Amino acid sequence: MTVGEGERLDAQRRKKFWRLIFALAAVGAVAGFVFGFIYGAADATGEPVSDTARAAAAFALVVATLGGCYFSWRFFSTVDEVEVTDNLWASLIGFYIYGFGFPTWWALFWLKMAPEPDGGILFAVVMLSATAAYGVRKWRSR
Amino acid sequence: MNNRLRVLRAERAWSQAELGGRLGVSRQAVNAIETGKHDPSLPLAFKIARLFNMPIEEVFQDEGAGQ
Q: Model pTM?
């Protein structure tokens, strides 16, 4: 096989991709650490959290959210159409699971056949389904 | 949609990564197109045809054509 300009450009593109993923993970990790540290310290002492600590935790969350938005935008302007399609399919499947799952659960709750819908569980199921759908598509085009 | 991407690439002794780099897409994207798991967008299909210096219909064929 010929190793030429294309291979070099491909390596450059992959490096850019992983740099973005790393930056996104780093923002999340720093924000998570700050929030977890403040929450953990308050939990250990049993003291009420100071206004300064709460402001720092809120700031960390805002930075993580804005960082997530910025790096997601950079990510989607860097990746190719197959990656975008994989993400769209994963999002669509997650959306449908939420769209059908929540009303069904709520109706079962109304019929007194299920506990009240839990936002945390729904979030986890949607994220796991979307991640699984993304993983299957990636595996198929590996 | 059928395509001759694998053959055209082999004729030039290019790896999937080499072709991907020249097209600005990943190696996985080239593999997905070659194996028919992904139909490229029109801009990408034209880019592929331009790269191989061929009309687009010589690279991609409609499966339903001629039926």
A: 0.79
